[in-house]
Amino acid sequence: MGFITDTMSENDKRNYIRQSSDNLFVEAGAGAGKTTFISKRIINQMKKGVSPSEFVFITFTNEATVELYTKIEKNIIREMKKTESLEDLSVLTTALEKLPEMNIMTIYRFCYGLLVLAKKARGIKESDFVGSEGMNRGNRVITERTRKLLTENEEFLENIRKKYKHIYADEFQDTDEEQAAVMLLIAGEGTDVKKDNAELAKLLSGQKSEYRIRDNAVFFVGDGRQSIYRDEGAKIEIFENVRKYMSENPNSAIVSLEENYRSEDEILGWINRHFEQYFDNYVDMKGDWKINDPQSFHGIWKVKEKNENDAAETIGLIKKLLDDEKIYIEEKNSDTTRRLIYSDFLVLLMREENIGKYLEEAEKLGIPAITTGKISIETNENAVRIMTLKKAKGLAGNIVIIADRSLSRKEYFDRIGEEENCSEWERFEYVAATRARHALLFMPEETENTMFSAKDYQINALPVLSI
Predict the structure, then answer these.
(1) How many CB atoms within 10 Å of residue 281?
(2) 10 Å Cβ neighbour count for 87?
(3) E strands along 86-161, which residues?
(4) What is the C-alpha separation between 250 and 138, in angstroms, rounded?
(5) What residue spans define the domains of the chain?
(6) What are the two backbone dihedrals, phi and then psi, of residue 254, each rounded to the nearest 5 degrees?
(7) Candidates 2.60.120.580, 2.60.40.1180, 3.40.50.300, 2.40.30.10; correct CATH number of 265-465?
(8) Among 119, 125, 226, which residue's Cα sits nearest to residue 170?
(9) Which residues have a Cβ under 8 Å from the Cβ of 77 and sit 6 or more positions away?
(10) Interstrand relation of 369-370 and 384-388 (parallel, antiparallel or unpaired)
(11) What CATH class has 3-257?
């Protein structure tokens, strides 16, 4: 039976993640500080002699690639400054020099590299998948062809296993079968590839499997509550089946993290109360900060009912909040307060075709607005971010506005071709709510049965924001 760390304290779990040589499956909810504990684990393995070139880290987007590389680099430098061991300092110095050799990339870029190496990339151009989207139905031929390559060429697979000894994957809940198969094939230790592939198919379908992964070969991290790419091929069942397999594997461990370093207590309490009724075995997230100044802008609000032009009303609300001298936020873990700025706002839409309307309204009022996510953080660009929920996944905003509530549950499931009893809708709502740090605002509904319209959310009972 794999080791499940439920009896550990949160601090012990994080220390275990950093120091352990087990294969790990980490369930990390929104705001869990994934990039930090991942980078610390990688640095610890480098201290033990692992070369950066032996890592493959599969990220969900190209933006996440930049973020992880930067975080690892900063943490190495931080470790170098505080270490008193000349031996550790030498290892860290070498790791920093060789850091560019680390393979941090999306699954498509990684698979494309394998196909090029094996001279099997005919008909595929790298320019076809350079976008930032983590899932793309059209790119699935790349992973399908890569799995076929690995299962038909034993010598090539063995060489790849020797080259890439540690397989990390972020956002594992949004993985499809072919992507998971590629990673697990490289992490395997069997010598009969046909048998391995058959056992792997059993594993991924949830059946009892004899598939074996090497010691200290995989590190998967994700949150089943945030799986929202079913329409593009991702299957929450893959996440669940790999978790089940690793929980039964003696060289693996399951770690569930509960702390949320993002949302203030009022938001977190509301999220826990409402989502525990929608997800089986829901574990409450525990916050690490509470607003000290009750007059600062925070918590959950509904916007006064008007519902004439959601784009104009949403952007108009942002301008009013920015212009109101009485509105301010309290910095986390500090008595410092400040007025709002443009980049505090993250506006979430369900319909991509409506983004232009919100950008037009922002331009009318002279408010800088962008539709990208992490770029605004990396460049400190002071602009309101307006984007679809899918593109906002992995991001956070001090003030999150749930706007464009014009898509009904039925229309959404008609679009993705799924039955309405699929829990994808609730996962969408969970992702939306967990983006907020200081305040979560709901614009009025534009249609029935739209996001957060269930009576259980008690939106009508929220305080009204009318300025």
Answers:
(1) 7
(2) 9
(3) 103-106
(4) 37
(5) 3-257, 265-465
(6) -110, 130
(7) 3.40.50.300
(8) 226
(9) 96
(10) parallel
(11) alpha beta
Global pTM reads 0.89
In sequence order, which residues have a C-beta less than 8 Å from that of residue 15 and are 6 or more positions away? Answer: none
Determine contact, residues 407/445, Cβ cutoff 8 Å: no
Q: How far apart are CA 31 and CA 439, in angstroms?
A: 15
DSSP per-residue string spanning 274-336: HHTTTSTT----EES---S-TTSS-EEEEEPS--S-HHHHHHHHHHHHHH-TT-EEEPTTSS-
> Three-state DSSP class for 272?
helix
Chain segment 6-35, per-residue pLDDT in tens: 788 999 999 999 999 899 999 998 999 888
Q: What is the pLDDT of residues 301-346, one digit of tens each?
A: 999 887 789 999 999 999 999 999 999 999 998 889 999 999 999 9
Distance CA 349, CA 354 (A): 8
Task: Decide: residue 185, CB within 10 A, 0-12 exposed, 13-18 middle, 19+ buried.
Answer: buried
Smallest CA-to-CA distance from 148 within 140, 189, 128 is with: 140
- The reply to whether 265-465 shares the fold of 3-257 is yes
Residue with tokens 């060489």: 159
